[in-house]
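Dear H.,

Thanks for agreeing to be a second pair of eyes. The structure we're designing against is below in token form, covering all 582 positions.
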């Protein structure tokens, strides 16, 4: 230990007194004595001291941490905490792994079905991508949270999207009559711009979230940033190496099967003609959502309002209203709702939420146990309840103080707004027209409002928790990332057609560009939805709210890139041209 001048003088007096009287020096933090060493060398001058004894390594580290904490001018309080029981944690791991493997298997099969032999190379690249993500996360010692899982899901969509973009461009080059080697080379070159633009916009979003976000949001951003880098590496380099190796050996690669060879070719849908209908449909959905938001509101979790929450599992099905009645008698007010099966409840209360001591935490938990005794097995003890013995009792508990809840809310809002501003500026810089930026940001706002509105309308009727917490914010951020990714790919194609077909009418250029991206859009959306649906159906109950938001977001994001972002860009650009002509 090393002290400043003032501390050294006090320390010299204290150690001299302890030595002369045969006393000890107590090291105390928050009224707990962590160590009480003897002074064996007389008074200690100069402020430098050391403590020796028969410590284990962990005991020495703990004591050092206590001494460092003692430098703080105020005591430390735990203002946010979570405790997950081992059985619930294992259930989440098992169901999550099972659903993820099934979803991944379906994606791999789809790529084989749609692209034939070329699908094998994309599957290898995708598997390597996932391996790299988990390897890097393990190397960093990162903890995989719900927001982190959302980042990995988005990463899988990005990785598949990059391969789909490349394969679709190669198919176009082959359709022009080019040789296989030339088609592969041109396909990779032509797809590169779209891949980079889509990944850079998503990467900028992740970077802003990492800077402004709190813990779980930082986890989402970290996973997403790693995933973007690994996806670019595997799609651009690994896929290229494998395809070039196969083609250079003289083998033929069609990038399709007999079923999918002519699929989505020569489509001539007039998307712009349907834009007014899309505006009306979207407007009505958003209006309904906003009405619900202002009247019903959202089911805000403790992350945003503060409080304590417990997930309790019973040996038999229980009546939610009966449990709510007895819990309200104990705490004054509490929210009780079914989560998963009818034998599992989530109980939230603001009882003594401003008091953060361990004693208060224990008091609240004890009161909860006493109120739930009639619904627990006969003779069930408090310790059995806390340990969730025989898979009955407290499975999860969480606590967030009101001040931290307010901080989380503010940082979440700033993170989302900051990412939108950065993306607007990047698209403006990249596409040279503010109309593209306006279209992209409008589509993002459209998607976010619809997802939030649907949550507000349906949360009372869903058999799973739809609380608005940090996991939901991660879902919203994922929707933003997915929507931007989809929109930028479409815009990149429109810009390419502008440069190639300068004599075409404006609406013809836009419609042709949209039609040419249909195959890519549907492939990417379907593969991402397959992953999400498998995890939603087979995954843990705690993930269902997050996955529901992602499923809605992917559907809405795919729709908005074609029917909102592009028409907004078209209408504003066309109006500007008309004003110039007049």
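And this is the sequence the design step returned. I haven't edited it by hand at all.
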């Amino acid at each position: 230990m090393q002290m400043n001048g003032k501390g050294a003088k006090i320390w010299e007096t204290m150690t001299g007194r302890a030595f002369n009287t045969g006393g000890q020096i107590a090291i105390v933090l928050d009224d707990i004595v962590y160590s009480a060493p003897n002074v064996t060398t007389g008074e200690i001058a100069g402020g430098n001291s050391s403590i020796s004894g028969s410590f284990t390594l962990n005991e020495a580290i703990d004591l050092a941490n206590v001494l460092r904490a003692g430098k703080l001018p105020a005591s430390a309080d735990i203002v946010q905490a979570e405790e997950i029981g081992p059985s619930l944690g294992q259930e989440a791991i098992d169901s999550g792994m099972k659903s993820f493997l099934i979803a991944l298997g379906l994606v791999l099969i789809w790529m084989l079905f749609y692209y034939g032999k070329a699908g094998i190379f994309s599957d290898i690249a995708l598997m390597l991508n996932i391996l790299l993500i988990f390897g890097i996360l393990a190397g960093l010692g990162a903890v995989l949270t719900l927001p982190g899982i959302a980042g990995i899901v988005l990463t899988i969509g990005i990785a598949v999207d990059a391969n789909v973009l490349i394969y679709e461009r190669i198919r176009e080059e082959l359709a022009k009559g080019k040789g296989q080697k030339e088609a592969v080379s041109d396909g990779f070159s032509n797809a590169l711009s779209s891949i980079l633009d889509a990944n850079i916009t998503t990467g900028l979003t992740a970077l802003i979230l990492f800077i402004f976000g709190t813990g779980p949001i930082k986890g989402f951003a970290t996973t997403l940033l790693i995933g973007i880098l690994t996806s670019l590496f595997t799609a651009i380099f690994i896929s290229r190496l494998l395809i070039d190796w196969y083609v250079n050996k003289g083998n033929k690669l069609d990038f399709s099967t007999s079923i999918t060879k002519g699929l989505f070719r020569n489509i001539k849908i007039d998307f712009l003609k349907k834009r007014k209908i899309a505006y009306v449909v979207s407007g009505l959905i958003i209006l309904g959502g906003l009405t619900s938001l202002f009247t019903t509101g959202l089911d805000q979790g403790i992350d945003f309002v503060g409080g304590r929450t417990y997930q309790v599992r019973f040996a038999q099905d229980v009546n939610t209203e009966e449990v709510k009645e007895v819990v309200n008698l104990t705490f004054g007010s509490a929210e009780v709702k079914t989560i998963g099966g009818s034998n599992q409840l989530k109980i939230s209360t603001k009882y003594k939420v401003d008091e953060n001591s361990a004693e208060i935490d224990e008091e609240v938990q004890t009161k909860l146990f006493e109120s739930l005794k009639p619904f627990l097995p006969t003779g069930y003890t408090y310790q059995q309840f806390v340990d969730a013995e025989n898979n009955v009792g407290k499975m999860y508990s969480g606590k967030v103080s009101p001040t931290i809840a307010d901080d989380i809310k503010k940082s979440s809002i700033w993170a989302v707004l900051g990412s939108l501003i950065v993306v607007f500026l990047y698209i403006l810089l990249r596409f040279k027209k503010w109309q593209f930026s306006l279209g992209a940001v409008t589509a993002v706002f459209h998607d976010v409002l619809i997802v939030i509105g649907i949550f507000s309308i349906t949360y009372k009727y869903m058999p799973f928790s739809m609380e608005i917490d940090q996991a939901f914010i991660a879902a919203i951020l994922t929707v933003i990332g997915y929507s931007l990714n989809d929109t930028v790919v479409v815009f990149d194609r429109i810009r390419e057609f502008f440069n190639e077909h300068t004599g075409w009418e404006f609406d013809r250029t836009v419609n042709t560009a949209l039609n040419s991206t249909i195959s890519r859009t549907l492939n990417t959306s379907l593969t991402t939805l397959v992953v999400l649906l498998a995890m939603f159906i087979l995954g843990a109950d705690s993930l269902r709210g997050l996955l529901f938001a992602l499923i809605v977001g992917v559907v809405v994001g795919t729709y908005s890139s074609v029917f909102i972002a592009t028409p907004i860009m078209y209408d504003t650009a066309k109006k500007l041209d008309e004003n110039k002509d007049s």
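Two observations from my side: The domain at 307-400 is CATH 3.30.70 (Alpha-Beta Plaits). The longest strand covers residues 341-349.

Warmly,
E.
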